[in-house]
Amino acid sequence: MGARVLVVEDESIVAMGIKHKLQNLGHTVVDMVATGEDAVKSARKNDPEIILMDIVLKGDIDGIEATHIIREKQDIPVIYLTAYADEEMLSRAKVTEPYGYIIKPFKSSEINANIEMAIYKHASSKKQNEILKKRILADFYDFILRAMPGSSTPNETEMRKLLANIFADRMELDMKPGFDKAFSDKNIDSDSSEAEEIFETYVEWITTIFSDLGIRIGLKSETTSFFIEFDNCPWIEESRKNPIFCLNCQSMINRSFSWTNLEGEINRRSTIASGSSSCIFALNL
Questions:
Q1: Fewer CB atoms inside 10 Å of the end CB: C or N, the chain?
Q2: Does pTM top 0.90 for this prediction?
């Protein structure tokens, strides 16, 4: 079956040619737009299965920036179309994790192969994420069963501290190697690099961790604080039934931030378990 495709191309003749090729291949073009701004709007309105995105566009934002904005809110695979392939552009494009990169001019068979492969990889990735979510959910209940304190625990505060430490210890086994690799790949040393570089690398890494779980991340900075917002918890029902569940994310952030050796603290501002529409953590530096 064909895919629902959004075409982003600022040359009208080229755009019509792409549309014609896609339709002949059995795909449906849900919209054709010429600017990055319109691409963002059309993606939200039409929710395509895949986007063919030209990198060099007219307007204030190019295809790479448009893709970054779209990916913050929607899980849509993007294939870049471009007549240019310099190293700087490729480096910028890689950050948005595209599902393909086609150099103009291209053949119909090339577009079709890239679309089919992108849809397959995207579906496979979503399946793996679902498996990971279920594993984490199973781990959580295992934590509860194994770590629930006895009657000697004096109060709920002590119990929460105990569970938070157990969650963090268990998650450290899975998360620390990835953290170390992310810093090593960028030649960042938490003991000697500049604080700004360390913090930027940490934010990029923790955002990827939660994004891989299917959680949309919102980021906002102020003078001395940085806010991380999770607005679509995949375990919202579990969290509302059992507020202790929210200790998972809090433990992940608190423990991983300690690895950066940065001065500061993390405070929980709101949680879904407490009735808020999202979970917000403030990193006070």
A1: N
A2: no
